[in-house]
């Protein structure tokens, strides 16, 4: 598959997936989702890959969904149907957790919407101190997707997950570490070095042990993850994406004004 929005390299047993589409700050559209599915599958199947690193660019990890695209559809009077996109990113989300290799997410700058979900999708998250996590879905009249609600409930409990999902307030790198979401925090200029040093340490470790630790944890905590993504996440996002509130939220975001929601 030709990669247009990702860079994928494998060196010394470490696969590095770099989201690299600055035009929309690594927003996850159908093309990005297709490429992510492809490289996650490739890394899992490649016997030369021991550890996987998922990263963005210095300016942003990922801005989440492509709101500009949705805005254009709404302005043209078209229907916004996210089912296909959400199904694809669900495959990515479950693939990262189910993968037999350790996954490190390396986050610099903004991780918004589905970008938060991808950042949470690894086994270890290393952040630059300028990282900012924003579950911005609610500000658009949407619900979290790419597994965010599920992962947060498992990681920090239902009350905190509810707060972050319902308020959409930003969470900085240090708070993410205090919540147990981030493994390490460092200066932005040190992020690549710190990430790769840790990746090399893991790559030199007992890979069969890692594989089976991941299997134990997946079967204990995430056994119903794929089913939840298909039977809960997609239908709930479908309902709110068809609402007038989403249209208003999307327009307000693009027009840089406060949304006037009506619960319809």
Topology:
Blueprint: E1 6-11, E2 14-19, H1 30-45, E3 51-55, E4 60-62, H2 67-75, H3 83-98, E5 102-107, E6 110-112, H4 114-120, E7 124-128, E8 132-134, H5 148-156, H6 158-167, E9 171-172, H7 173-178, E10 184-186, H8 191-203, H9 207-221, H10 225-241, H11 244-254
Parallel strand pairs: 2-3, 3-5, 4-6, 5-7, 6-8, 7-10
Antiparallel strand pairs: 1-2, 8-9
Give a quick set of tags describing it.
six-stranded mixed β-sheet, 2-enoyl-CoA Hydratase, Chain A, domain 1, single chain, globular, 264 residues, alpha/beta
Main pleated sheet = 6 strands, mixed
Number of strands: 10
Low-pLDDT residue intervals, each spanning 5 or more residues: none
Query: In which order are the strands of the major sheet placed?
Result: 1-2-3-5-7-10
CA-based gyration radius: 18 Å
Question: How far apart lie the N and C ends?
Answer: 41 Å
Reported CATH architecture: Alpha-Beta Complex
Secondary structure class reads: alpha/beta
Average predicted confidence as pLDDT: 96
Count of individual helical segments: 11
Helix content class:
40-55%
Content of β-strand: 15-25%
SSE string = EEHEEHHEEHEEHHEHEHHHH
Overall outline: globular
CATH class: Alpha Beta
What number of domains?
1
Indicate the CATH topology: 2-enoyl-CoA Hydratase, Chain A, domain 1
Assigned CATH superfamily: 2-enoyl-CoA Hydratase, Chain A, domain 1
């Amino acid at each position: 598959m030709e990669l247009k929005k990702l860079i994928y390299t494998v060196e010394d047993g470490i696969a590095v997936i770099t989201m690299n589409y600055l035009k929309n700050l690594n927003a996850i559209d159908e093309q990005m989702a297709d490429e992510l599915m492809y490289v996650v599958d490739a890394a899992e199947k490649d016997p030369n890959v021991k550890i996987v690193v998922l990263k963005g660019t210095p300016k942003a990890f990922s801005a989440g969904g492509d709101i500009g695209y949705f805005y254009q559809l709404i302005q043209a009077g078209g229907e916004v149907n996210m089912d296909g996109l959400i199904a694809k990113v669900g495959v990515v989300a479950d693939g990262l957790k189910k993968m037999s290799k350790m996954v490190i997410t390396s986050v610099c700058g903004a991780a918004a919407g589905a970008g938060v979900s991808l950042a949470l999708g690894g086994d270890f998250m290393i952040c630059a101190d300028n990282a900012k996590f924003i579950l911005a879905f609610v500000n658009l009249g949407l619900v979290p997707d790419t597994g965010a609600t599920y992962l947060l409930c498992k990681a920090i409990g239902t009350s905190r997950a509810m707060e972050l999902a319902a308020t959409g307030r930003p969470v900085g790198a240090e708070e993410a570490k205090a919540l147990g979401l981030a493994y390490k925090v460092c200066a932005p200029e040190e992020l690549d070095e710190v990430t790769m040093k840790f990746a090399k340490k893991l790559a030199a470790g007992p890979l069969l042990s890692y594989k089976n630790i991941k299997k134990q944890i997946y079967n204990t905590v995430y056994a119903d993850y794929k089913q939840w993504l298909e039977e809960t996440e997609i239908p709930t996002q479908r309902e709110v994406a068809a609402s007038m509130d989403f249209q208003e939220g999307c327009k307000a975001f693009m027009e840089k004004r406060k949304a006037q929601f009506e619960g319809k």
